[in-house]
């Protein structure tokens, strides 16, 4: 048993961090927030580096790395508050294509010719039971009708993997719909860099990825999406922590840096513990997924639930301990506060994941959502 | 990263489990003469320690002549896992085995090792750790117990407090001041004090749980004379050695806290469903959430601990070791509180000595000391803030 990153994994993380420091500085995040630039150049660079292909099998032209490496990338994207469709592509779209052996589509993603996201949530539910989006076979092929909410990178990706119910059989299936065939309503007003959107399908033409018996595979995909989002939140929270710690070391009041006050020190120790805790549980889930261990479902619930606690503490203390300066638009802090908070609302809240655990432990009756 | 141990490590685990099944003391033996203090070694425990030593299972990482089998770090880890889960104490003198003997092996003379360390490893004697004083708790370097050189002897005067097991120990690993005229960290030495030396008075401090079986003590030293040869390591070098001792303690304690949390959580999961069932529907979900939070924490304790271990094995520094004390003690306390409060008035019932049981106030108050002793949570936060995060001392 080894819960520490291997030397290769650490090297990969260092490389990713170095690249993002140059390619995704706070000035870019600011420009996207302010609408004066977009993510196109960053996306071109990450495609050149082969990052969308990281977790794609080699026979489809991918790098063939495991889910721990995908999780690493998700964390670093959070640490950089990176805009663009990469997170959705590696942690939602690729897992769907891998589960259903879509070799041709995987090859397109690996070459950087296609990005994608998972369109599953309806209302605030990320569960599979209450899905009402409909798939219908017509003379003109398969058509999708319905509305999906909070689609990650919904306004940025090329295509959606839509989870919908067959009108005739009532079975859940997964369908590929091009973004151009749907109506995309951007929703991330406070966090525009994630490209969050509600997506409306009105008899949108679709390609069948799998028309039946998809539940188990989709649960596995959701575990990957959830765990990647966990580490994405952790990455954002760690940045909040570092910014706040740096500030406490230079801000002088009463002739001493404020970080020398014990009241603050203890809060920093607690914040540090919280980030490490969420990080450790996040990677435990990642390695459970990578090894397809039976604990993967439980581990991903625990990880996301803890990421929720983590963002709550780090957003509140990070903002509070910065004082007024952190409340200003000019300060960069808010990019990560908003990223961390948005992450809590995606892939199921911590409340949702704790209730799933409560049911799994037999403490309450099964929650079917 | 991987979730499983190497096959050879699992074989090592099985080898130990087989040996343990054939050699462990029986529950009846242990219940008939329970160890009532952290330096009390009943006859069954003496025999058990000797059996462990002879078979190389006392400290597997050490060579056979010191009770081991030159096992690697991962092997030692699975050994400690199984030992902790077995319900049999590895030792009834944890500070003796975990801190004092390793320190003596590091810094002691051959004669000190022969007279103090080896008999302890054979289960013949026990030891206590004389650190805290009335004015030197969290601020250990402020200790005032004096050792004055007089020919071939030291004369000791002063007072220790919170000394676990002093009421049963054969000797004390005593921290004392040998030079009062230098900065406080630089005038501390360690001296081996046989507890039957004239002038040593031990007064047990009855605790809020099990006052009939005190473990903490005050130790008064009045003109106590010990041979100068009982000085451990170099004169005035005690502070550096203290940091070594505490490192030994941390190295062992984190896994105990992982397993203790795991076993407590198991009891919680056995207890919770029937209690929750009896609750009104609207209370059930709230109570379930408390249990779930404890469950997540028990896994987090485990993940942090094992990750820190992985870093140590690879030779890196591991801030987890500092976090573990803070986190594991608080988590275990929270678990005890949630279980007791959820259980209702039944939690007031008393249970026999040392059979800690989740869901009782006895468990709650019994475990509470973990956030106070061996560096309180407040001190742990200061250590993390200053040594790990680099915030200035205030």
UniProtKB/TrEMBL annotation, chain A:
<comment type="similarity">
    <text>Belongs to the acyl-CoA dehydrogenase family.</text>
</comment>
<keyword id="KW-0274">FAD</keyword>
<dbReference type="GO" id="GO:0003995">
    <property type="term" value="F:acyl-CoA dehydrogenase activity"/>
</dbReference>
<dbReference type="Pfam" id="PF00441">
    <property type="entry name" value="Acyl-CoA_dh_1"/>
</dbReference>
<dbReference type="GO" id="GO:0050660">
    <property type="term" value="F:flavin adenine dinucleotide binding"/>
</dbReference>
<keyword id="KW-0285">Flavoprotein</keyword>
<protein>
    <submittedName>
        <fullName>Unannotated protein</fullName>
    </submittedName>
</protein>
<dbReference type="Pfam" id="PF02771">
    <property type="entry name" value="Acyl-CoA_dh_N"/>
</dbReference>
<dbReference type="InterPro" id="IPR013786">
    <property type="entry name" value="AcylCoA_DH/ox_N"/>
</dbReference>
<feature type="domain" description="Acyl-CoA dehydrogenase/oxidase C-terminal">
    <location>
        <begin position="222"/>
        <end position="361"/>
    </location>
</feature>
<dbReference type="InterPro" id="IPR036250">
    <property type="entry name" value="AcylCo_DH-like_C"/>
</dbReference>
<dbReference type="InterPro" id="IPR037069">
    <property type="entry name" value="AcylCoA_DH/ox_N_sf"/>
</dbReference>
<feature type="domain" description="Acyl-CoA dehydrogenase/oxidase N-terminal">
    <location>
        <begin position="6"/>
        <end position="90"/>
    </location>
</feature>
<dbReference type="InterPro" id="IPR009100">
    <property type="entry name" value="AcylCoA_DH/oxidase_NM_dom_sf"/>
</dbReference>
<dbReference type="InterPro" id="IPR009075">
    <property type="entry name" value="AcylCo_DH/oxidase_C"/>
</dbReference>
<keyword id="KW-0560">Oxidoreductase</keyword>
From TrEMBL, chain B:
<dbReference type="GO" id="GO:0005886">
    <property type="term" value="C:plasma membrane"/>
</dbReference>
<dbReference type="InterPro" id="IPR006091">
    <property type="entry name" value="Acyl-CoA_Oxase/DH_mid-dom"/>
</dbReference>
<dbReference type="InterPro" id="IPR013786">
    <property type="entry name" value="AcylCoA_DH/ox_N"/>
</dbReference>
<dbReference type="InterPro" id="IPR046373">
    <property type="entry name" value="Acyl-CoA_Oxase/DH_mid-dom_sf"/>
</dbReference>
<keyword id="KW-0560">Oxidoreductase</keyword>
<dbReference type="GO" id="GO:0050660">
    <property type="term" value="F:flavin adenine dinucleotide binding"/>
</dbReference>
<keyword id="KW-0274">FAD</keyword>
<dbReference type="Pfam" id="PF02771">
    <property type="entry name" value="Acyl-CoA_dh_N"/>
</dbReference>
<dbReference type="InterPro" id="IPR052161">
    <property type="entry name" value="Mycobact_Acyl-CoA_DH"/>
</dbReference>
<dbReference type="InterPro" id="IPR037069">
    <property type="entry name" value="AcylCoA_DH/ox_N_sf"/>
</dbReference>
<comment type="similarity">
    <text>Belongs to the acyl-CoA dehydrogenase family.</text>
</comment>
<dbReference type="InterPro" id="IPR009075">
    <property type="entry name" value="AcylCo_DH/oxidase_C"/>
</dbReference>
<feature type="domain" description="Acyl-CoA dehydrogenase/oxidase N-terminal">
    <location>
        <begin position="11"/>
        <end position="124"/>
    </location>
</feature>
<dbReference type="Pfam" id="PF00441">
    <property type="entry name" value="Acyl-CoA_dh_1"/>
</dbReference>
<feature type="domain" description="Acyl-CoA dehydrogenase/oxidase C-terminal">
    <location>
        <begin position="236"/>
        <end position="389"/>
    </location>
</feature>
<feature type="domain" description="Acyl-CoA oxidase/dehydrogenase middle">
    <location>
        <begin position="128"/>
        <end position="223"/>
    </location>
</feature>
<dbReference type="InterPro" id="IPR036250">
    <property type="entry name" value="AcylCo_DH-like_C"/>
</dbReference>
<keyword id="KW-0285">Flavoprotein</keyword>
<dbReference type="InterPro" id="IPR009100">
    <property type="entry name" value="AcylCoA_DH/oxidase_NM_dom_sf"/>
</dbReference>
<dbReference type="GO" id="GO:0016627">
    <property type="term" value="F:oxidoreductase activity, acting on the CH-CH group of donors"/>
</dbReference>
<protein>
    <submittedName>
        <fullName>Unannotated protein</fullName>
    </submittedName>
</protein>
<dbReference type="Pfam" id="PF02770">
    <property type="entry name" value="Acyl-CoA_dh_M"/>
</dbReference>
């Amino acid at each position: 048993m080894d819960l520490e990153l291997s030397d290769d994994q650490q090297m990969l993380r260092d490389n990713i961090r170095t690249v993002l420091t140059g390619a995704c500085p706070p000035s870019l995040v600011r420009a996207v927030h302010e609408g004066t630039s977009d993510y196109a150049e960053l996306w071109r660079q990450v495609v050149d580096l082969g990052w969308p292909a990281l977790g794609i099998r080699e026979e489809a032209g991918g790098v063939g790395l495991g889910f721990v490496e995908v999780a690493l990338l998700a964390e670093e994207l959070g640490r950089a508050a990176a805009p663009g469709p990469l997170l959705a592509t590696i942690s939602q779209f690729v897992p769907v294509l891998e589960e259903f052996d879509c070799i041709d589509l995987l090859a397109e993603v690996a070459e950087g010719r296609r990005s994608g996201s998972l369109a599953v949530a309806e209302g605030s539910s990320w569960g599979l039971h209450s899905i009402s989006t409909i798939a219908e076979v017509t003379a003109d092929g398969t058509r999708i009708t319905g509305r999906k909410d909070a689609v990650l990178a919904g306004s940025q990706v090329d295509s959606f993997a839509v989870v919908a119910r067959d009108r005739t059989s009532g079975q859940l299936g997964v369908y590929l719909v091009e973004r151009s065939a749907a109506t995309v309503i951007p929703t991330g007003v406070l966090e525009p860099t994630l490209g969050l959107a509600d997506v409306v399908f009105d008899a949108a033409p679709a390609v069948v990825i799998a028309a039946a018996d998809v539940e188990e595979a989709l649960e596995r995909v959701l575990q990957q999406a959830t765990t990647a989002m966990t580490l994405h939140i952790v990455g954002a929270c760690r940045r909040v922590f570092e910014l706040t710690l740096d500030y406490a070391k230079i801000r002088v009041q009463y002739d001493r840096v404020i970080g020398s006050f014990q009241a603050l020190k203890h809060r920093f120790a607690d914040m540090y513990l919280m980030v490490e805790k969420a990080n450790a549980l996040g990677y435990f889930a990642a390695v459970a997924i990578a090894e397809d261990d039976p604990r993967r479902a439980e581990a991903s619930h625990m990880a996301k639930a803890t990421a929720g606690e983590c963002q709550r503490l780090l957003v509140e203390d990070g903002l509070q301990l910065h004082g007024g300066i952190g409340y200003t638009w000019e300060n960069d802090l808010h990019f990560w506060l908003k990223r961390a908070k948005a992450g809590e609302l995606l892939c199921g809240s911590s409340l949702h994941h704790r209730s799933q655990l409560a049911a799994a432990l037999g403490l309450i009756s099964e929650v079917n959502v | 990263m991987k979730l499983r141990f190497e096959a050879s490590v699992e074989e090592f685990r099985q080898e130990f489990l087989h040996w343990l099944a054939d050699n462990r003391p029986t529950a009846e033996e242990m219940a008939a003469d329970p160890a009532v203090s952290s330096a009390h070694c009943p006859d069954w425990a003496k025999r058990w320690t000797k059996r462990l030593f002879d078979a190389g299972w006392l400290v597997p990482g050490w060579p056979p002549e010191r009770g081991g089998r030159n096992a690697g770090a991962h092997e030692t880890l699975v050994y400690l896992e199984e030992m902790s889960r077995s319900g049999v104490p590895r030792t009834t003198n944890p500070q003796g085995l975990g801190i004092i003997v390793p320190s003596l092996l590091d810094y002691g003379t051959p004669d000190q090792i022969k007279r103090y360390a080896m008999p302890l490893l054979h289960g013949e004697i026990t030891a206590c750790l004389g650190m805290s004083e009335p004015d030197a708790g969290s601020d250990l370097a402020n200790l005032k117990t004096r050792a004055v050189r007089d020919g071939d002897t030291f004369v000791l005067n002063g007072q220790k407090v919170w000394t676990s097991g002093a009421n049963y120990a054969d000797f004390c690993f005593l921290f004392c001041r040998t030079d009062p005229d230098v900065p406080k960290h630089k005038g501390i030495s360690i001296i081996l004090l046989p507890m039957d030396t004239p002038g040593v008075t031990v007064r047990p401090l009855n605790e809020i749980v099990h006052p009939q079986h005190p473990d903490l003590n005050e130790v008064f030293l009045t003109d106590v004379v010990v041979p100068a040869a009982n000085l451990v390591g170099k004169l005035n070098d005690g502070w550096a050695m203290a940091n070594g001792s505490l490192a030994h303690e941390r190295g062992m304690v984190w896994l105990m806290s992982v397993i203790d949390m795991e076993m407590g959580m198991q009891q919680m999961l056995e207890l919770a469903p029937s209690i929750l069932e009896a609750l009104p529907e609207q209370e059930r979900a709230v109570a379930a959430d408390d249990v779930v939070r404890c469950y997540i924490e028990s896994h987090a304790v485990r993940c942090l601990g094992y990750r820190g271990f992985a870093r140590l094995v690879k030779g890196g520094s591991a801030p987890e070791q500092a976090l573990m004390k803070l986190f594991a003690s608080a988590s275990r306390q929270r678990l005890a509180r949630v279980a007791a409060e959820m259980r209702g008035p039944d939690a007031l019932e008393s249970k026999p000595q040392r059979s800690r049981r989740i869901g009782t106030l006895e468990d709650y108050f019994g475990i509470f000391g973990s956030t106070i002793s061996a560096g309180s949570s407040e001190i742990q936060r200061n250590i993390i803030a200053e040594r790990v995060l680099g915030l200035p001392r205030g």
